[in-house]
Amino acid sequence: MPRNTLDRYSSAHCTPSRYRWFAVKSEHIGHQWSFSLEKTSKVRTVLVTEKFSDQRLDNFLIRELKGVPRTRIYRIIRRGEVRLNKKRAKPETRLKPGDKVRIPPLHLPDSQKLPEPSAGLVKLINQAILHEDDDLLVLNKPPGLAVHLGTGIRLGLIEAVRQIHPNWGEAELAHRLDRDTSGAIILCKNALALRDIQNQFKRNCIEKRYHALVQGQWPEAVTEVKAALKRVLSESGERFVRVDPYGKPSSTRFKIMERFSSTTLLEAYPVTGRTHQIRVHCQQAGYPILGDPKYGGNNQGEEVKGGSSVTAKYLCLHAADIRFRRPGTDTLFKVSAPRDKSFAAQISKFRKMPSRSY
Q: 104 to each of 79, 150, 235, 287, 334, how far by Cα in Å?
């Protein structure tokens, strides 16, 4: 059957104003033609209720605009198209009951249906559950799995979890891990638990411990790295973080766990919670994380410090455990996440290499 694609088609007479034709695809089947419409939403103002008190503006919009790419949401915030009480606001702005959020017109795909998780992903997520109760669950996120939708990512961890376990309600991420970082991550099942956990993060009451495999021999004297960090956009449009005197203060404590011939296994304790903090601090110290080409880490098998050739498919950074207060109680709770198989294999490989004296 012949297929034709029309680059553009416009029909103001037969299409309601709330619709527009965009990159219209047509399929000729006999004498029938089918067209793909893209719908345009109207301007609307949403009143923030008690349920969403203290939630970040970006997370609120992500919930309101299901299926809209996060890059699009951050763009309309940055451009001032989103207004909070008639004023511009930043993505991290916390909402309070009674706030009015103006959402601009957006071109929305007519169908927002997400792809179904594969059988392999369903099994992976079910095996990753470390703890579950009425308020939250803790998963051992595998490397390579994004925590949410994004550019080029049609299905993230949170979207998959909602489809696999609809009985968990509208589960929400309490925090984030980079796509290639593995380990413990908290998901909340209700708004009260989410607010409680996010408040604990805000007050630095939650303790997280990471394992990082870095290139070279980390000095015993370096037990803490303090460097202000700033998020920037490269000329190619790539987002990254760099050390900048005008950035946000940040601090990470480090402890040597084990030395190998050309790498060092570290414990990393982020005192603050900046984006890519541990990765940039390791780079700043001169010992980037293995498998982190974005911040100087080797993942191509070239020779690294110590003279050995190593490779790493994924970023060698793992959220080993997390300690927090259970929502609505004073009970401290700790959940540990076993290392991912690929990370464990890297460590095993280095243990078999000839050691050096230092």
A: 11, 20, 28, 45, 42
